[in-house]
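We emphasize that the prediction below concerns an isolated chain of 469 residues; any contacts that depend on oligomerization or on bound cofactors are therefore not represented. The input was used exactly as deposited, without trimming of termini.
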Amino acid sequence: MCNGTVTAGGTTDVAVSETAAAVPAPASPSVHEGILRRQSLRESAARTYARSLPIVPVRARGLTIEGADGRRYLDCLSGAGTLALGHNHPVVLEAIRKVLDSGAPLHVLDLATPVKDAFITELFSTLPSGLADNGRVQFCSPAGTDAVEAALKLVRTATGRKGLLAFTGAYHGMTAGSLDASGGAEDVRVTRLPYPHSYRCPFGTGGEHGAELAARWTENLLDDPKSGVTTPAGMILEPVQGEGGVIPAPDSWMRRMRRITADRSIPLIADEVQTGVGRTGAFWAVEHSGIVPDVMVLSKAIGGSLPLAVVVYRDDLDAWQPGAHAGTFRGNQLAMAAGTATLAYVRKNGLAERAAVLGARMLDQLRELTAEHPCVGDVRGRGLMIGLELVAPEASGRQPAEAPPADPALAVAVQRECLRRGLIVELGGRDSAVVRLLPPLTLTDEQAMAVLDRLADALAAATRTRESL
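Result of the prediction step, given as a token string:
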């Protein structure tokens, strides 16, 4: 897609070639291989990223990671969306050093501190006004899934109801309640609703009509006295489903969900763990549709690369008793300082707006691949949250209007070819057939072209290999 030389990860990063074929020469593999071997022997079988990304990071800056084997990679995983400013951004490091040098306590449970006060002030300055004006914040154990658990507990306490509405394809975390609300739940204790999906529409229509049918289904389920669904404690949704396959919710559908829940006094929970802090081209993804949820679940980027998770909600829902949701590590001072610096930097430098412009440009360029590669079934996303669904277009037995079946094997091959070319990408979606890009918001135009070149070259190589078999 382009040629030349760029600087990856900002002006302080190492120089890398943006040419797709430029593959860093491996150094001595002894240290690298030894660490990976010991990891496989000693760590849990539940490890995930380490299986598909057999690298050993030793240094990182901005977009770039350097491995123990001397190879450099462009990181479009960004800690699963955690690193809004990329690796080791100077403002984040400075904020952490300032706390360390001040002598402030690093562990304070939920006590008030100047660091926490500054974080809350900055956080509330970014929230939708309808929530910031009368909001409360609950600090949780430092993982998004615990914040989801807190949000579910909160609405059940406030409403006195137990049921929950969630959506197909959802992902809300790995603890019990979060899994119940996610798309892979096996012991179903949550009412599942259709999430609009233009490419694989459950109603076979897609577009605004498919979204309208999904909304109508939700309304009918709640209003039909024989549906078997009583008024729930809350509805939880992602403005863009990430693990579900990078599926942006239509703005009109989001507004409809807000009306449906408000009219029936059902608290609406927006899970912004991955979509928040400018990722989708707005500071918070709900801002695209103009809605104000009753509850927002926040984690990942709000900690500036360190563990932090909170729930923000309307003050009239604050029906908890003291200690109703607690956690020893709620007072992560370093994460709050790093988070304050990150939130302020994104806000002051217009990085959300930058993500909207650059993300739209990248989506347009990626859609050009569909003409050359029929295996690229769909290109979608919002801001710098981008996905390519890979399919098997030659599969027979499908109706003409149906999308081809997903091709997870090809997606794995593309991910592997990307890594060979020094590009880190993640897979997601129902069949793990969606190649996902989550680059830092500090991504430059030149870096974006380097990423796209390497991805296009990896896709071509993977399809050539498959065709030769």
